[in-house]
Amino acid sequence: MAWAILFLAGLLEIGWAIGLKYTDGFTKPLPTVLTAASMVASVVLLGIAMRSLPLGTAYAIWTGIGTVGTVIFGIFLFAEPATAVRIGCIALIVAGIAGLKMTA
């Protein structure tokens, strides 16, 4: 169950990272509230997952999910570059997440 909670926390991290772009410097009320709620929920779920998962593993996987998801959404939503080097780096992060999951 902790892994599912951690995965959800990572998805919410993607949500708040993308949400920051839509807050327009926290000047738009609805995106700001949704982003803040996603931040809080993400950290709370991370804390719950850490009850039974190793700190370093849980934190690295949480940030990895957030990083990979944010880069992918940035490519599709904001036309950020999808170069071979960026895709390769994403693959390395995914490999690291998989490795940590297998060793935990």
TrEMBL record:
The keyword Membrane applies. It is a multi-pass membrane protein. Keywords: Cell membrane, Membrane, Transmembrane, Transmembrane helix, Transport. It comes from the Bacteria. The chain crosses the membrane at residues 33-50, 57-78, 84-100. The keyword Glycoprotein does not apply. InterPro entries: EmrE-like, Small_drug/metabolite_transptr, Small_multidrug_res. It holds the Pfam family Multi_Drug_Res. Gene3D superfamilies: 1.10.3730.20. It is found in: Cell membrane. PANTHER family: GUANIDINIUM EXPORTER, SMR FAMILY PROTON-DEPENDENT DRUG EFFLUX TRANSPORTER SUGE. Belongs to the drug/metabolite transporter (DMT) superfamily. Small multidrug resistance (SMR) (TC 2.A.7.1) family. Gdx/SugE subfamily. This is Guanidinium exporter.
